[in-house]
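seq as requested:
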Amino acid sequence: MAEAEKSVRPKSSKVWEYFTLNKSKKCVNCKICKSDMAWHGSTTVMMQHLKRKHVGVLDEEGSSTAGKKQQTMRGFLMGNASCTPQQAAVLTDSILNMLVTDMRPLSMVEDEGFTKMIHTLNPGYTLPSRTHFTKLMERKYEETFKKVKTAINTNNSKLALTTDVWTSVATEAYLGVTCHYITDDWDMQSISLTTMPLQGRHTASNIAEWLEQVVDRFEIPPSKIIAIVHDNGANIVAAANILEEKHGWSSVRCTGHTLQLVINAALKNPSIEKAVGAARCLVEHFKKSELACSKLREKQQQMNTPEHSLVQDVSTRWNSTFYMISRLLEQRWPVTATLSDSSVTQRGKRYLDLKPDQWSLLEELSTVLKAFECATVFMSGQKYATISTIPPLVKGLLKSTQSAVYESAPLRAFQLTAVQQLQERCKRETTFSDSAPNTVILAMLLNQRLKPLYLIHSLVLMVKKMIEQAKLRMSTLK
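struct tokens:
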């Protein structure tokens, strides 16, 4: 009876769906690859064969995948509908980091599209409220604040501050302060300490007080700060002078802003202003006309010109004017051809095209501005120190500007004004004085890549004079 039950007992293992048993030969035959294997009453050999030769036929539990439908993308993304507290914490922290990194508003967590996306990715996750994320943001700020304060105070390097007072589009005033230092591994670090809303008048004494408040909040010893970099505004310059007298912080004016003022003054020649204004109107026309832009792309293809868009300049960035002029010169003939097309440009707007003398003026202007653009880009670097290169950079700009020969009177006027402005505005950064050591000059002297021999002689004279003054004071005390 037992033998009868054994003979009729069904094969429970799923591997039998892929093998045929031959009892007389004591072997099994694979239905997939038709190979024969010895059978000893166990399914182990067949299981190993399927896993080794036919990957995917069996799942991890050893059950057959035959007859199962392919998993949909939604099912794959949803996975297990449940969400453990640990998984929820990871998702919440990831969303918080996304809000901080991409500077997204906290209201984003309440947006319909965002909540649907999160539900699709993990239906079991309950998205916290905006109030909860606000509390998490405040907690993260406090943690980051402590880390920044620790990193600054445990570092052995001196610090330099960069500050600027600016106004938002909502006419709200802010004070930005950034800290710069070199780590023990010789990596240059820049950390934004604050973007502080300002209340009250922006007087020199108020700005100096606000800067001291930022330093006190991060518990930075005033003796650890060596310099403060700022623009050329009269109030911020006066505030830096106050701090220099009080704490000994060197006042260093932003070279990029100085170059901005130099170029702005030189561009005020009437002929240059008229040519640049005409170029600006021309670019604005293409920016506002979809038909003109489409025709311009067609002309670019016909003339085998790079399919670049025209660039609109910004009044507060002189180099954007240079980029606008350079791009317009590159696209001169496609632009002219587009404006000449009666199907695109109305008869009354043919005046938009520049005159030949204006095109020639812009070509010369682009040449003279190129050196200033290179200097501005270099001085805008964030991963290297630039203070030591200010004197040779100014000298190089003066040399390149003075040595150039221009045919048009407006460019000669630009040349004269630019040289005068550079000499006047950069006099402090390029003049050595034995009575008041200049931080910029000293930084250049310490730069091994520069060899200003004429300044080394001046430095020797300064040191000798300081030694003589010290000896005189010592003799007076005796």
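Residues 290 and 296 are 10 Å apart (CA to CA).
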